[in-house]
Amino acid sequence: MPTVAKDGMRGLAVFISDIRNCKSKEAETKRINKELANIRSKFKGDKTLDGYHKKKYVCKLLFIFLLGHDVDFGHIEAVNLLSSNKYTEKQIGYLFISVLLNDGNDLVNLIIQNIKNDLSSRNPIHVNLALHCIANVGTREMAEAFFNEIPKLLISKEDIDQVKQSAALCMLRLYRAAPDLLPSGDWQNRVVHLLNDSHLGVVTAASSLIHALAEGNPDALSRIVTSTYQDLQDYTYYFVPAPWLSCKLLRLLQLFPPPSEQARLIECLEVILNKAQEPPKSKKIQHSNAKNSVLLEAINLIIHLDNDAVCPLLVRATNQLGQFLNHRETNLRYLALESLAQLAQCDFSREAVKKHLDTVIQALKTERDVSVRQRAVDLLYAMCDRSNAERIVQEMLAYLEAADYSIREEMVLKTAILSEKYATDYNWYVDVILQLIRVAGDYVSEEVWHRVIQVVTNREDIQGYAAKTCFDALQQPACHENMVRVGGYILGEFGNLIAGDQRSAPLVQFQLLQTRFHLCSSTTRSLILSAYIKMINLFPEIKTNIEDVLRSDVLQKNSDIELQQRALEYFKLSAISASNTEMLATVLEEMPPFPERESSILAKLKKKKPAAVKVIESPTNGHGDDKAKSLPVAKMSNDPPMPAAAPQQSSQDLLVDIFATPNTAAPAAPAAAEPAYGLTNMDDPFGINSSPAAPPTAAAAPSEPPPLIDSHCQKFFLKNSGVLFEDENLQIGIKMEFRERLGRVQLFYGNKSSSVDISNFKANVESIEGLKISTHQEAPNTITVGSQFQHIINIESMKDFDNFPVLNISGLYGGKYLALRIAVPLYMTKFAATATMDANQFFQRWRGLEKPDQQSQSVFKTASIDREAGMFH
Q1: Closest CA relative to residue 812, chosen from 758, 755, 751, 750
Q2: How many alpha carbons lie under 13 Å from residue 62 in its C-beta half-sphere?
Q3: Beta strands 816-823 and 708-709, pairing class
Q4: Contact 372, 362 (CB under 8 A)
Q5: What are the tens digits of pLDDT across the range 645-667?
Q6: Which of 334, 245, 303, 314 is closest to 273 using CA atoms?
Q7: Where does the record place the Clathrin adaptor alpha/beta/gamma-adaptin appendage Ig-like subdomain domain (predicted)?
Q8: For residue 635, what pLDDT band results from cuts at 50, 70 and 90?
């Protein structure tokens, strides 16, 4: 409280001293309750309180609130202080209102008129106090009340610089709170002229406001007035003139198209690049940070311009960033890799970036910081072209075995995209994908292994090689389930291409798949059954062996309704074929080529990191030899002829998607001409979720993951049981038990319906860094009407963590697809064990920990305290 000493509020000083001298929490609470009672009695009973005493008591209430105690009175007295002409009293009133006022508080309406009076005051100090209060509260009600008032202060010729600076920042705060209420008028054009102001504070605040306005409505600010600054040298930070202002202006220019006259702008950018190469004027890290921040923002502007005029600057920027790749500062290496990834997408600097390939690969292998390794992966992906694709893919495959779990899935996606885009030999592409599955099977998403199946189906020249390679992979002792899926599908379709070799005879292929059958999930077993019925058509000599499996009690009386139905219908189909072989051949005809569409792999990568895939979207990437080839679509004999006016495939559809919605502009074959094994539902190309002899009736799975549900997490901070999720169909309950680092989570799934079962039900909890999660009891496959099942998960805390594990749920409910992502409320504090000791005992035990892995500490700041939930944010 800076005003305590000046105003001599001895009572406040004594109260603060008493609180600090309290020996326990109970003593502090007792002293505060006594003071609250005294203040309440003064406000209610003493009608002659002057401004000084009101100010003193309001200060006490504010101090009590900042200690974490509730304050439910005194607001009216604080509002009364706003009417005072004394600065100290008005200041305390505004301070109290700014701290205790929140969105939706009825007190807002009481203070609006007081604030308006101060905004129109001729005293700039009062105006500034009002502006600071508006910005600190920053609610929608504040925007509605003052949005039309503040622009007048912003462009007034009478107001002093400090008022203009505060008005610009206040306007920015209200615009972020309610952008739809932004007032129109000429003030938006006039605010640009604040960049010519001689006061650096006004220019800096105005540039932040202009940047926000230009992002939200670029048409409202169609031009930027360039200006010169004579006084920048008077405002330096560790020998760097106005670094914050320079960065703001450089960032602002990136929101607009390149100007027609660029000579002056290029000259400024050259000066920045030249100064960055000068010997440092100080060895302190602050000087390096300030200088490099301006340099990196200038490089971003050069990338934004990206034309012939800045071609030399692009090459210079690339070379300067290359020098940072071996810098001792981790942050600088990170930023250099990030900027080089952008430069790799520019035609003029791409070759210069490729010269640093060895350094980037070395960084991928030796960097200790996972975020820097992530940026190295992004740069390798961005700089890849036909000349270095094979090396980059092999290096990423080699690193994948030791890569952090947090980046494995993204690395798999990028490796799959690069191997297909730049494949000159598609046998190599098949090898790469299968190696991805072998090295990181758990992180190979459905999009990846679906894609390799589509490529093989559409290219006749690699079908035999793919069948032989998958057959060899299935013979390995350790075989991931994704490998079984790929191998099962390809052998079912193209196993006849390798059946001439006794080592891969039809019976050997069937027996090989059968050895994997009982070790797989229900979905994979459904796919293998589809492969079996295809084998009956391809290899009549093993029909009896396959029928023995299909009619076994293990399948025809299986608790999984999908497996049971497939076994029954496939066996019946095989029996009918004895008298009608043509019917079986027609139903089980080879899958037709998939239509060309944008790759689901590329779409998934765009969702994860939109800026990282721009290089793939360009058909040439600046080099004629890198133009991507679209996959040929082979015509089946029963396909209708293509119309002469059929639209051409876009050059940007470089990869296609076997799961995307069919293109309505493309011609479609009649339903009767489609083979039953393929079906017309592109969301289920393998017929896994549908009946084998009829079009699927179940709803298709959504192409995008559902949003994460985490609104329930706070209520579990202090309790371990309750309802995680509930709607009209499903209720999910949770019960958690913890013993030091070990935890046990019981999930209860209840079907609330009175008529419909939930089928194909799947539930799994994703592991996160810091937690080891294992399933003790699996969730059921079907939840019948009115029933409840239990799903048990064991948790072990390995180190500190700050994310929630995610429970993924899917299933079918009355023909509708059920998909949920729910945060499991596991907090790090739940694994803590209580230990009572004083400070001396604690530090004595701490110093006794000799090994480095016995100590772990983390320092962090809290943004706010939720008193109702009893937790920090």
Answers
A1: 758
A2: 22
A3: parallel
A4: no
A5: 333 333 333 222 322 333 333 33
A6: 314
A7: 714-825
A8: very low
Q: 374 and 407 in contact (C-beta within 8 Å)?
A: yes
From 384, 325, 390, select the one nearest 350 (Cα to Cα): 384
Name every residue whose Cβ is closer than 8 Å to that of residue 861 and which is 6 or more positions away in sequence: none
User: Residue 345 to residues 76, 303, 341, 385: CA-CA distances in angstroms?
Assistant: 60, 9, 7, 11
Extended beta strands in 479-522, E state? none
**What is the residue whose two structure tokens read 């980046």?**
407
- Please, which residues have CB within 8 angstroms of residue 249's CB and are 6 or more apart in sequence? 195, 207
Distance CA 861, CA 873 (A): 9
Task: Give CA–CA dist 660/653, Å, rounded.
Answer: 12
Alpha-carbon gap, residue 676 to 530, rounded angstroms:
11
β partners of residue 796: 742, 772
Give the separation between CA 803 and CA 784, rounded to whole angstroms.
33
- What ranges make up the beta strands (E) of 519-580? none
Integer-rounded Cα Rg, in Å, for the chain is 34
Per-domain residue ranges for the chain? 459-593, 708-831
What are φ and ψ of residue 822, in 5° steps? -125, 130
Distance of alpha carbon 777 from alpha carbon 484, whole angstroms: 24
Give the whole-angstrom CA distance, residue 335 versus residue 358: 18
Side chain identity, residue 775: T
CATH class of 708-831: mainly beta
Task: Point out the least confidently predicted range of 283-287, 614-618, 643-647.
Answer: 643-647
Tell me the two tokens of residue 333. 């290496």
Which pLDDT tens digit goes with each residue over 292-313?
A: 999 999 999 999 888 888 899 9
Alpha carbon dihedral 520, 522, 526, 531, in 10-degree steps, equals 0
- Report strand pairing: 816-823 vs 865-866: unpaired
Model confidence, pTM = 0.54
Question: What is the rounded CA–CA span in Å between residue 82 and residue 97?
Answer: 10
Listed residue (500, 444, 493) closest to 470, CA to CA: 493
Strands 708-709 and 788-797, by their bridges, are unpaired
Helices 446-458 and 463-474: crossing angle, nearest 10°? Answer: 140
Contact between 524 and 481 (Cβ < 8 Å) = yes
pLDDT at 140: 82
